[in-house]
Amino acid sequence: MTIRWGLIGASNIAREYVINAIRHNDGETVAVMSASADRARDYAAANGIPNATDDLDALLARPDIDAVYISTTNELHRDQAIAAAKAGKHILCEKPLALTLADAHAAVNAAKAAGVVFATNHHLRNAGAHRAMRHAIQDGRIGRPLAARVFHAVYLPPSLQGWRINAPAAGGGVILDIAVHDADTLRFVLDDEPESVVAITQSSGMASAGLEDAVMTSVTFRSGLIAQTHDAFTAQYAGTGFEVHGTEGSLIAHDVMTQKPIGSVMLRNKDGEHPLPFDHNDLYVRALGAFHAAIRGEGQPAATGEDGIRSLAFGLAVAEAARTGMAVKVETGL
């Protein structure tokens, strides 16, 4: 069964990762849609896609498209996802699913009503490093988890700065771009849910129009575990990492908050330090494989629509906590 795809958004992430992952899983990219007809045409030619359009309705009307990947700016996700669901297309949507919880629920509910698969493109839970950490915790190798730290401060290259740093109406800023990934990865690795958060944001000169380009949070989870996160567009040399500290040991991972299958994980306990082996397979190939399987009725996507709702709820709580200076509950509506 060949899954045939339409791209809603002629994006860098689709070009660099998703198109290849579709093809690796015996899928086919049939068409691309962009608000600019010229960009759609040039993108299609550069990426071996046979059809291009600037008309969403035209793309969704194609009977030779089974699924769509939505990677437009954030404020467009809800309406495009609902339109795709009504057209009977399976949906892989970039995070955040929307700019409000109500809108995210509306998108996910539209897919349920239409009987189509809805997934959120939270790529990090597909990393071998994070799956190895999750399994080590489940196997009791660090005892009871007590605390976690995520270091996700990176440098946003000029080619990606655009709306992310100057367009509040498009959902720009580091919280909805990066902090939501932290939320999903913490939830996945810990098998736990964030309940409340305090936060401080920073606008250090890269972002404008009142947007934040860095944020630090402290999070309380359902189990009582506490966590810290640091996200930024402005740190050129920080490196990324993920630590989980338990009653019997610690997991210390370096260079794992990335789209690439790299990094290392070390288990430290009373017996010393032990490298934790994991696969270095392509994160997106794994995600698209799970999505294709879900379309065939075999299990769920790697990250569901509900996962996208939960990460958005975290991001909105972070923004409110930073604005008010108060601890804010993470309310998902699920």
TrEMBL record:
Regions that span the bilayer: none
Limits of the GFO/IDH/MocA-like oxidoreductase domain: 130-251
Read off the Gene3D superfamilies from this record.
Dihydrodipicolinate Reductase, domain 2, NAD(P)-binding Rossmann-like Domain
By its UniProt entry, which Pfam families does this protein fall under? GFO_IDH_MocA, GFO_IDH_MocA_C3
Alphabetized UniProt keyword annotations: Oxidoreductase
Q: Does the keyword Lipoprotein apply?
A: no
Q: Could you give a GO molecular-function term held by this entry?
A: 1,5-anhydro-D-fructose reductase (1,5-anhydro-D-mannitol-forming) activity
Q: What does the record give as EC number?
A: 1.1.1.292
* Protein's recorded name: 1,5-anhydro-D-fructose reductase (1,5-anhydro-D-mannitol-forming)
